[in-house]
Amino acid sequence: WVVIKNKWLAVVNDYLIYYILNLINNIPCCISDREYKLLL
After folding, report:
1. H or E element, residue 40
2. What is the pTM of this model?
3. Measuring CA to CA, how many Å separate 30 from each of 14, 23, 26, 36?
4. Which site among 12, 22, 26, 31 is 20 to 30 Å from 40 CA-CA?
5. Max CA distance (Å), the chain
């Protein structure tokens, strides 16, 4: 059961990373380039 739980956590981690990367990639669409550079 521990192995199954660990695999599930790994899938959730992969999904969270993918979701966060998508959010980061979508930031330039939501705000101007100048504001984006200020955030960086």
Report:
1. none
2. 0.46
3. 24, 10, 7, 9
4. 12
5. 50
